[in-house]
Specification:
The protein is of the alpha/beta class. Helix content is 47%, strand content 17%. A seven-stranded mixed β-sheet has the order 1-2-3-4-6-8-11, with helices on both faces. Strand 3, helix 1 and strand 4 form a beta-alpha-beta unit. The longest helix has 16 residues. The protein is globular, with a radius of gyration of 18 Å.
Length: 279
């Protein structure tokens, strides 16, 4: 039977020794912040070191939200004071880079909003599958005078080409599941009723294969496709610097006054609302 480890915001379920599910469960919005970092780090470390796991699926227990943006109510020093991870990168980009290189297949099953950090985790995963009706991907930060910090500028061009890799963060708009599939932002989008069955069947199939063959194949694909840490490192520094600028502070404050960080229309339609801030 499954072995479940319960965390405050992240649940790890071992459906079998070779097939794990990681579920984000931080209602109402699945906001990611400094308190989430050690929980995700524990998951990534386990994926790196466990000798049996072959595939992990990331999903959400929160209706309407896969994983959203960074916590702007947390003190900035709670993030900047955290020590670098094993790669030498700051904790969030470190964990995402390690996830991409772990000898385990990672799959993001996206139902609801993958906004900011959620998009960045999906991009760091090996595969992304989305609900056609319910998935929304977004790098919204430029609309609030911020620079995305978790590696999307390094990863997106390799997936979707330069023009679209500029459109996604500079447009700062919501990308629905069907358009994300068309762009190559996700592998495939499915009718919502079919998403779980497909992802589970694929994960189960991969989990039945030889771990060394999986790990070696992924390692060789990584050589041709992953950005170096040197490409990712400047993004987090640019994000932290942008948070402190008056333009960002003013726009974030305007979003807060509209209902940012609360369940409601701003979080449900963040792309729309950041497009209204300059008016």
């Amino acid at each position: 039977m499954s072995d479940i480890a319960n965390h405050k915001e992240i649940r790890l379920e071992k459906r079998s020794p070779s097939y794990w599910r990681v579920t984000f469960d931080h209602p109402p919005l699945n906001i990611f912040g400094p308190k989430t970092i050690p929980q995700l780090n524990a998951v990534v470390t386990a994926l790196e070191t466990d000798e049996q796991v072959k595939v992990v699926v990331f999903d959400s227990a929160v209706e309407g939200f896969f994983l959203t943006h960074y916590d702007f109510l947390a003190r900035l020093e709670d993030s900047t004071s955290l020590p670098p991870g094993p790669t030498g990168l700051q904790p969030l980009p470190d964990m995402l880079a390690r996830l991409s290189r772990a000898p385990v297949v990672s799959i993001a099953s996206i139902r609801g909003r993958a906004t900011g950090v959620g998009s960045e985790l999906a991009l760091a995963s090996d595969m992304r599958f989305a609900s056609r009706e319910k998935a929304i991907l977004s790098q919204w930060e430029v609309g609030a005078a911020l620079v995305p910090g978790g590696g999307p500028m390094a990863r997106l061009p390799r997936l979707i080409g330069r023009g679209r890799a500029l459109e996604v963060p500079l447009g700062a708009d919501d990308i629905p599941g069907d358009l994300a599939e068309l762009y190559g932002y996700v592998n495939r989008a499915f009718p919502d009723a079919e998403l779980d069955g497909f992802v589970d069947a694929l994960a189960t199939r991969i989990a039945s294969f030889d771990k060394q063959a999986i790990a070696e194949t992924k390692r060789l694909v990584n050589i041709a496709s992953l950005p170096s840490d040197a490409e990712i490192a400047p993004e987090w520094n640019a994000f932290i610097a942008s948070v402190g600028r008056p333009a960002a502070q003013n726009r974030i404050q305007s979003l807060m006054e509209r209902g940012f960080h609360k369940a409601g229309d701003v979080e449900n339609r963040l792309g729309h609302h950041v497009g209204q801030l300059g008016g």
